[in-house]
Amino acid sequence: LSEHPRRFGTARNGPDPVAQLAMLAVRPGAWRNSATRLAMPADVAAHMDSLEASALSDLLSCMRRWCRGHDIDEVASALSEVLARTGRTRESDVEMMLSRMSGFGLGTDPDVGPDLSAYDEMLVAGDAS
C-alpha cells in the first residue's frame, strides 16, 4: 500500500517515478503512461517500449532493486550507457555500469596497478626459476 500525491491543474510536481516501479513490474501495460517512462532518456524509453510484457516486467523489477542504492537518474544513465554500448539492457551489464559510474566514473583512466618491473628484470636476467 502506498500513497502518491495527485497533480492538479498546471502543478509541476507529479508522481514519483521510483514509487511506480513496484506497480509497473506487476502491470507492465501501464508503462507507456507512467511517470517512470517520462523520467527515462528517449533511447531507453524506446527500447523498453519494444520489450514484450514479461521482459519489461523483469527490467522494471531490476530497476526497482537498483533504485534502492541509486537514484532514478543514475539508473537511467546506466541503462542508456549500456544500451548504447551493447544494444540491450542485460541485468549484469547495468549493475556493472552502475558500480563503475558510482565508483570511479566513466571518464577516468584505469588503475595502473602495482609496479612489477623488479619481476621483469629477474626474467630478463634469468634469475626467476
Short description:
The chain is mostly helical and 129 residues long. It contains 7 helices and no strands.
Notes on the structure:
It is a single chain. This protein has 129 residues and is mostly helical. Helix content is 55%, strand content 0%. The protein has seven helices and no strands. Helix 5 (72-86) crosses helix 6 (91-103). The longest helix has 15 residues, at 72-86. The radius of gyration is 21 Å and the shape is elongated. The model has no long low-confidence stretch (mean pLDDT 86).
Strand content: under 5%
- What is the N-to-C order of secondary-structure elements (H for helix, E for strand)? HHHHHHH
Radius of gyration: 21 Å
What is the terminal separation in angstroms?
67 Å
Instruction: Point out poorly predicted stretches.
Output: none
- Helix/sheet category: mainly alpha
Helical segment tally? 7
What descriptors fit this protein?
mainly alpha; 7 helices; 129 residues
List the topology elements:
Blueprint: H1 21-26, H2 35-39, H3 42-50, H4 53-66, H5 72-86, H6 91-103, H7 117-125
